[in-house]
Each structure stands twice: as structure tokens, then as C-alpha cells.
Amino acid sequence: MKILFVEDDDAIALGLIYSLEKEGYQITHYKTQKEAINALSEQSFDLLLLDVGLPDGNGYEICRYAKSKQEVPVIFLTAMDDEVNIVMGLDIGGDDYITKPFRIKELQSRIRSVMRRYQKQEDDGIAKIRDIIINTKTGKVYKNNTEILLTALEYRLLLVFLNHQGQILSRSQILEGIWDVAGNYVNDNTLSVYIKRLREKLEDDPGDPLIIVTVRGLGYRMEKNNVA
């Protein structure tokens, strides 16, 4: 598996490259935003590991550029662990977020989890819930045959519900589905906001939802309904 790794700290980079190459990953390492974007313009990668703070920019811009070229998983590596930066990184298309310092075993676990999620999306076809059509191969969602524009985080939230149709999901289960072990960074209010936004885009009447319903005291459930 080819990984584009962007990190300007040599000490961190050398140790991480050594450990990941021992696991069989093929690592291409750059220190700057410019080098990384140039590489992405010429070749494709299976995963991006991006430091947020770089000498000539940031990992967010690399992520935006990469996502405009192909649907590739992105994990951010950074010393900034406040919620604003986490939500920003996820909103622009990041798939996970790990703060420094971290254990290599944890990073390897995150990589495997993100790649499993992408593989599952590739294996799925088209799902229909009432008047909503979800094409997991293209990452596009339609309501009454009109495309709905979702943020990356909203889309992942929808996939969590889609993969557990008919099941009651607790708030902690939903967070784990979106951010894996990074779910503890997001509080209940943040989750409530994203569920509200998703309902506003999917439901005919967000105040009386029929697709993503609240199960009082337990969590949420996506109705298992394939009839429009």
C-alpha cells in the first residue's frame, strides 16, 4: 500500500517511516505542502498521512487538493487537539485525526480501520431509503433524484446509519463509527448539531423525522425501509 506522508519534523518522520516500512507499507515522504501537492498531481496514493502545520502551508490544503483529484483516505497528524481543529479537518474530508505524541501501534490501528471503511464502501452498491438514494461507489447522495451536497463528516455519519439499518445506535457507537477511537474528542452537543444538519438535508420534515429517528433514552435508528 502506497502512503504519502507529509511531516517536517525529521525525528518524527524517521521513526514513523521505519516502523511503517517494517509493516510492509510503501512510504513517500515530503516536508512541505508544495512538494506534496506536486506529487499528488503526478501520481496516486492509497492513503495520506498529513501533518497540519507545515513550513509553507498546512495539511488541510493538501487534503483539499487530494480530494479534488480522487477519493483517498486522509489521517491528520498534529499537536493541536482542540475541537475546532478536529471538526475542521473532518469537515474538509479528513477520515481520522491523531494527536502527537502517539504510539505507532495506535497509528497502525487507525490506518487499518480507515482502510477497512473505504473497502466496505467500495464493496457496497446503491442503497435506497424512502426517497433517498446513496451511491457509496461515487460518494453521492440524492433526494428525489436531485443531488444533496453533504460535508465529508455528514456523509460518514450517514454511512454509519446506513450500515446499521434498523438497529438502535447509542451516541458513543455513532461517534466510534465516525472517528473510531478518536470519538472521545467530540462532545454530545457537536454530535447533535451534525445529526440535525443531516436531518435537514434528508427529511421532508426535520422536526418529525422518518429516516433517522430518535429512540428516547437509547440513541438513534435509521428505519429499514426501501420503499419511497
UniProtKB/TrEMBL annotation:
Residues 124-224 bind DNA. The keyword Transcription applies. It comes from the Bacteria. InterPro entries: CheY-like_superfamily, OmpR/PhoB-type_DNA-bd, Sig_transdc_resp-reg_receiver, WalR-like, WH-like_DNA-bd_sf. Residues 124-224 form the OmpR/PhoB-type domain. GO terms for cellular component: cytosol; protein-DNA complex. Keywords: DNA-binding, Phosphoprotein, Transcription, Transcription regulation. SUPFAM superfamilies: CheY-like (SSF52172). Residues 2-115 form the Response regulatory domain. Transmembrane segments: none annotated. It comes from [Eubacterium] hominis. The modification 4-aspartylphosphate is found at D51. GO terms for molecular function: phosphorelay response regulator activity; transcription cis-regulatory region binding. This is Response regulator transcription factor. One of its GO terms (biological process) is regulation of DNA-templated transcription. CDD domains: trans_reg_C. PROSITE patterns: OMPR_PHOB, RESPONSE_REGULATORY. The keyword DNA-binding applies. The lineage of its organism: Bacteria, Bacillati, Bacillota, Erysipelotrichia, Erysipelotrichales.
